[in-house]
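Design request, tokens follow.
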């Protein structure tokens, strides 16, 4: 069951969709995630479509991408309002089904070859408990695509903007902004935790390693193509990948 302190997007689904996918940051995030996943989700004569479950799939942007590749996708989310948008966005995909369900209530995780959990952990009260739950309930040999808001990158962004008091307070505010992730994870600490419980890390990718640090924010739009190429070149290279605003792991049980 979800906890009361876990964040669900009922009541702000439209604002959530616009804020995430109506900007260069959302567009870039989707491009980089799709490219990071490509080696693991390609379908060919020798590689059959997978049975996929997306946990916290939101409005269905990633589900649509995976379904377009031929995979069978079950999208789950804890927000009924968000799923209204997902149903509309995914109505042309017969290989997608949708279910209102919280992460810790999923009881058939072992039925799936591929699990997607993107931008979910940072909204939970106990993100590491969620990672452990995913591991415990996956079948051996299944793959988990896991991405989360990077606490280290969040600190760097706030330092650049001179928000030193906010950093000194542990980057916690008294009145939580509803679209501000409540519990970001340090990228290396989270990656190390995944390995410690038994996952094999197949790939690590920083998502938006440069976009959020540009001195002139207008370049996020006016030089977007060059920015994409820069991100693509360095997002799996140290030290740059650790500065991604989001961090992405491909994990095998």
């Amino acid at each position: 069951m979800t906890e009361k302190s876990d964040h669900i997007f009922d009541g702000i689904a439209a604002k959530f969709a616009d804020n995430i996918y109506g900007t260069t940051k959302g567009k870039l995030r989707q491009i980089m995630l799709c490219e990071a996943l490509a080696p693991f989700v390609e379908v060919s004569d020798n590689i059959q479509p997978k049975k996929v479950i997306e946990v916290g799939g939101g409005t269905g942007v990633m589900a649509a991408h995976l379904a377009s590749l031929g995979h069978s996708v079950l999208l789950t989310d804890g927000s009924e309002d968000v799923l209204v948008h997902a149903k509309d966005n995914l109505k042309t995909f017969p290989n997608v089904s949708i279910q209102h369900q919280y992460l810790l209530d999923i009881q058939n995780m072992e039925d799936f070859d591929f699990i997607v959990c993107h931008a979910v952990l940072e909204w939970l009260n106990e993100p590491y408990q969620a990672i452990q739950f995913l591991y415990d309930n996956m079948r051996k040999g299944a793959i988990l695509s896991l991405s989360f808001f990077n606490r280290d990158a969040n600190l760097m962004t706030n330092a650049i903007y001179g928000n030193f008091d906010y950093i000194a307070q542990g980057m916690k505010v008294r009145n939580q902004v509803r679209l501000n992730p409540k519990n970001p994870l340090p990228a290396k600490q989270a990656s190390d935790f995944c390995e410690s419980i038994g996952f094999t890390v197949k790939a690590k990718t920083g998502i938006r390693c440069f976009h959020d640090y540009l001195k002139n924010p207008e370049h996020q739009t006016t030089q977007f193509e060059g920015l994409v190429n820069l991100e693509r070149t360095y997002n799996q290279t140290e030290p740059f990948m650790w500065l991604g605003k989001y961090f992405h792991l491909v994990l095998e049980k």
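Comment from the thread starter after seeing the answer: thanks! Strands lie at 51-55, 72-77, 96-100, 114-118, 143-149, 200-207, 246-252.
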